[in-house]
Amino acid sequence: MRADPNRPVILSEGDSWFSYPINRNLMDHIEMMREFATLRLEHNGDEVLDILKPSGEQFKKLAKYLKRYPFDALLFSGGGNDIVAENLPALLNQKTPGMTWRDCINEAALTARFNEIVAAYERLLAMRDSARKDCLIVTHCYDYPVPNGIKARVAFGLASRGPWIKPHMVKKNIDPIVDGVPILRFFMDQFYERLQAIAAMPSSKFHVVDSRRTLIPNEPVHWTDEMHPSGTGFELLSKRWRVELAKLFPKWAL
User: Fold this and answer.
1) What is the Cα–Cα distance from 128 to 135, expressed in whole angstroms?
2) Given CB 3.0 to 4.6 Å as the disulfide criterion, which of 82, 95, 200, 215 pairs with 173?
3) Going by DSSP bridges, is the β-strand pair 136-140/152-154 parallel, antiparallel, or unpaired?
4) What does pTM read for this prediction?
5) Band of the pLDDT at 162, cuts 50, 70, 90?
């Protein structure tokens, strides 16, 4: 900021789509769009309900930095980890003969979880309004993952993480492809609709990048593992962000 006061000032927070250590992630590609002054706080594996817990250290840190620096935008990636891994079984019903993929969704539990996520985002908006009311918040809705059981390889391939979806579906007697694919599409579509409802609130200064249908499902060129895009995939997604950011900040000349 001292070196170039005209640089856009960006704060980023969120999960592995902003902090994937194996290849260039979404935030890496966004940073490459132009010379930003960027403070990055994201960490892979983070959940929205943890990041935005009112008494949590991450929430306090966000508030502190928003008050301290003249951020133009807060870029946020969160919500995916809140519905997968150990959170997923509660959102699914045990499949029995005759059930459709829609019957496999525990609608009440899914609604309750999305209500929690929305409440967390609303806390973020309220804190932003108090700390730096002109800072825009930009987030996204991910893309459609396929529960194929592919793990994330870390530490030069010597260790792995995941999978986060397929084993939980198998335990519920849900076919990961026949039923799992439409279930996850439904989850992502519902997530987008809930985020859009926040964006539609008057004076929310909250914007959602519709990143669905950017990547080809289960395409190894676009996906590294069950949940994370490849470097190529993240680059394609960043182009969606570029379009949205150019609308919000035409003076940035992205």
Assistant:
1) 7
2) 95
3) unpaired
4) 0.95
5) confident
